[in-house]
Amino acid sequence: MFKNINILDEKDKRLRKISEEVTILSKEEKQLIKDIIKFLTYSQIEKLAEKYDLRPGMGLAFPQVAISKRVIIIVYEYEEGKFDNYVVINPKIISHSEELIAADTGEGCLSVNRDVEGHVPRFARVTVEGYDEDGNKIHIRSREELSIAFQHEIDHLNGILFYDRINKKKPFITDGSIRLI
Ligand code: NI
Questions:
Q1: Is 153 among the residues known to form the active site?
Q2: Which residue of 9, 32, 93, 132 is most buried, as measured by CB atoms within 10 A?
């Protein structure tokens, strides 16, 4: 199971490239998207994560599976045991809040197999524009944790890893300038 999902490690230089805009997705890539959704869903269900030895993750971007194309996939548990899937092709943040937030426990990434401590400043709300797998234009409004996920995954398309955004001198934001969630 999930043998076709090989996630690159942070040391791999391919993660640092700017991914290409997508014009067309192959049959294999569309299948891979389905498999990634299943993988991310299972990884967030404790029993299944254990069974298949999966590290929990809520998102993945194509460059993480060595495909330099602008595709992101997010599986968001909006309620206990209930998941929403987001697949966005050529995603763009078209507007965002002034307000900044950060996950209090920091962020994780399926390409980073270690704990990196520190707050990652993110917009509290973002509106993402892009295309679905059939080429239809889509708009998604997101806030809080989901907003963080979109920003994290879109960063991957631009070769950015979450810890690039942690202030090295002052990794924890304690002055109230950013709301911690
Ligand atoms: Ni990541």
A1: yes
A2: 32
What is the per-residue pLDDT across 85-103, written as a single tens digit (0 to 9) for each? 999 999 999 999 999 999 9
Is 61 part of any domain?
Answer: yes
Q: Please report, for the domain that includes residue 79, its CATH number.
A: 3.90.45.10
Question: What's the structural domain count of the chain?
Answer: 1
- The Å distance, Cα 44 to ligand 1 centre, comes to 15
159 lies in some domain: yes
* Active-site residue (options: 10, 77, 80, 153): 153
In this structure, the strands spanning 82-96 and 137-143 are: unpaired
In this model, does residue 3 exceed pLDDT 90?
Answer: no
Burial 125-135 (b: 16+ CB within 10 A, else e): bbbbebbeeee
Task: Give domain status of residue 2, yes or no.
Answer: no
Which residue reads 């993402």 in tokens? Answer: 128
Is 1 a member of any domain?
no
Ligand 1 midpoint to CA 162 (Å): 7
